[in-house]
């Protein structure tokens, strides 16, 4: 099944222009089987310094979106896109964790990369750097990453596919693909093919973390159509 591992809804992500039902309808229209809901988790979204309250709102939006997905026949999995205060132009995608993770760490935007990685791993999740090289964002310390994302957002110059493939091959990281969809452009047809046995948010993280081979659907910015690419992870000796 083809799942976009990077999607937003306007219920949390201010930069997204449409609510969950429309996000899911558009995903289905381009042939996606589902999304991982990775709304923005950033300090700038916190009102009155109440991070716990925001974490609860974040989780409610996920439940509302998942319920909508069940009605529309579109799978919805839980994820997080974190912007940390230490790396303001770098976004990190968290997969494979549940609501307990966010409730236990509502101020995770204050964490260093190492602390964020270790905390995610302690909860059984994986950490993937979103859209490296966009707006000058470099790849962070690969020792504290599980993967890097080939991103297909149409507003940006390119996906940087080849550059990221080379980094992944050298470091043993896995590659993922996602659209970072905000409804500010056409809906790209992109994502990561997951086995049908993946049925939960935990399963998503387990697959990304353990996959030795992964099939990606990539819609290069401004390209007329999409293509598939199979990446084989190379374990560093």
Protein architecture, described:
This protein is α/β, with parallel strands linked by helices. It has a single domain, classed as Metal-dependent hydrolases (TIM Barrel, Alpha-Beta Barrel), CATH 3.20.20.140. The chain is built from 6 helices and 11 strands. It has helices at 20-29, 51-72, 99-104, 113-122, 161-171, 201-210, and strands at 2-7, 34-37, 40-41, 75-83, 91-95, 126-129, 147-151, 174-178, 191-193, 213-218, 227-232. Strands 1, 2, 3, 4, 5, 6, 7, 8, 9, 10 and 11 form an 11-stranded mixed beta sheet that branches. Helix 1 (20-29) packs across helix 2 (51-72). The radius of gyration is 16 Å and the shape is globular. The two termini are 32 Å apart.
Short description:
With 237 residues, the protein is of the alpha/beta class. It has one domain (2-232): Alpha-Beta Barrel (TIM Barrel), CATH 3.20.20.140. Helices cover 29% and strands 23% of the residues.
């Amino acid at each position: 099944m083809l799942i976009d591992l990077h999607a937003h809804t306007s219920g949390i992500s201010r930069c997204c222009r449409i609510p969950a039902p429309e996000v899911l309808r558009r995903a289905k229209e381009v042939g996606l089987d589902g999304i991982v809901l990775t709304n923005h988790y950033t300090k700038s979204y916190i009102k009155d310094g109440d991070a716990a309250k925001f974490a609860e709102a974040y989780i409610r939006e996920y439940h509302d979106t998942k319920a909508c997905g069940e009605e529309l026949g579109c799978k919805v999995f839980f994820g997080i896109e974190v912007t940390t205060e230490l790396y303001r132009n770098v976004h990190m995608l968290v997969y494979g964790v549940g609501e307990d993770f966010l409730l236990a760490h509502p101020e995770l935007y204050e964490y260093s990369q190492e602390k964020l990685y270790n905390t995610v791993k302690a909860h059984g999740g994986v950490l993937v750097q979103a859209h490296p090289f966009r707006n000058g964002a470099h790849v962070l310390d690969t020792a504290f990453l599980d993967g890097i994302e080939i991103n297909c957002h149409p507003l940006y110059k390119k996906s940087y596919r080849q550059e990221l493939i080379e980094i992944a091959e050298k470091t043993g990281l896995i590659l993922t693909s996602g659209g970072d969809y905000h409804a500010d452009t056409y809906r790209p047809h992109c994502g990561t093919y997951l086995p049908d046995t993946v049925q939960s948010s935990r399963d998503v993280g387990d697959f990304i973390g353990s996959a030795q081979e992964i099939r990606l659907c990539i819609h290069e910015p401004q390209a007329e159509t999409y293509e598939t690419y199979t990446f084989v992870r190379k374990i560093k000796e």
